[in-house]
Amino acid sequence: MSGITIASRSETGARKTNEDYLQHGVLESGWYAVLSDGAGGHSDGAIASDLVVRMVVHELSVAFDRSLPAGAALQQVVHVANDALNQQQRGQRGRHRMHATLVVLWVDAATRQAVWAHVGDSRLYLLRQGHVLSVTRDDSVVQTMVDAGLIAPGDARKHAQRNQLLAAMGSEEPIEPHVSDADFTLEDGDALLLCSDGWYDPLEPHEIESTLAASAGAQDWLDRMHALVKARAQPNQDNYSAIAMWVGNPAEITRIRPAG
């Protein structure tokens, strides 16, 4: 597929190690982006995120079942990666287990159709004509509180329980990956952002749009968001990572042009 640009950035923040891991690229049949965050409070988060991403990329490369609907095939890929992580920790219990989030995007080269899946609280944002069209729903305690009307969405970003997940790769309970609606066709000018919670937590939602409006390309967009995150970093700033995908000509279509 022509007209696709992908960029990425991953930062350690104030932590000793970076437990985020990401990969992106192009295969003969399409484009992919994969990001994982080793879940905080558990051992070997970096190993978990690395293994999950590498398994997803391997499955997309050699075992992606195109006889299935794209959403079902991607769900199968996620389950294979989860099984691989669980094989690495058979017999481990509780906090001795490795956990990680996952968000994965696949764009079919022949149809321009996109499908994505996620587990945990790493997110995918889809922006169309410069505005957020959709955001994945976190598997988290605070998201359920927002859904129940107990707290406002803006309060979730600073809530004491914001890092408590209800689902993660490598958990002892079976996972149910969230998969996007089938047959979603990308348009010229669309922009997609995959990111860990350390990336989106310091940002106001409108800033994801405004930095896009000011950007000359996918890497520039990430650099502008990174500057905001870095300027607001707390002493315990988490790892923060993101992948940006732009469809079409960013200078002519994706950016919001100033009025007048």
Can you walk me through this structure?
- By secondary structure, this protein is an alpha+beta fold.
- The protein is 30% helix and 25% strand.
- It has one domain: 4-Layer Sandwich (Phosphatase 2c, domain 1).
- Strands 2, 3, 4, 5, 8 and 9 form a six-stranded antiparallel β-sheet that branches. Strands 1-11-10-6-7 form a five-stranded antiparallel β-sheet.
- Helix 1 packs across helix 2 and helix 6 packs across helix 7.
- The chain is globular and about 55 Å long.
Compact overview of the structure:
By secondary structure, this protein is α+β, with helices and mostly antiparallel strands. It has helices at residues 45-62, 70-87, 141-147, 153-156, 197-200, 205-213, 218-231, 250-254, and strands at 4-11, 20-27, 30-37, 102-108, 113-119, 123-128, 131-135, 178-179, 184-185, 191-195, 240-247.
Task: Please give the structural blueprint.
Elements: E1 4-11, E2 20-27, E3 30-37, H1 45-62, H2 70-87, E4 102-108, E5 113-119, E6 123-128, E7 131-135, H3 141-147, H4 153-156, E8 178-179, E9 184-185, E10 191-195, H5 197-200, H6 205-213, H7 218-231, E11 240-247, H8 250-254
Antiparallel strand pairs: 1-11, 2-3, 3-4, 4-5, 5-8, 5-9, 6-7, 6-10, 10-11
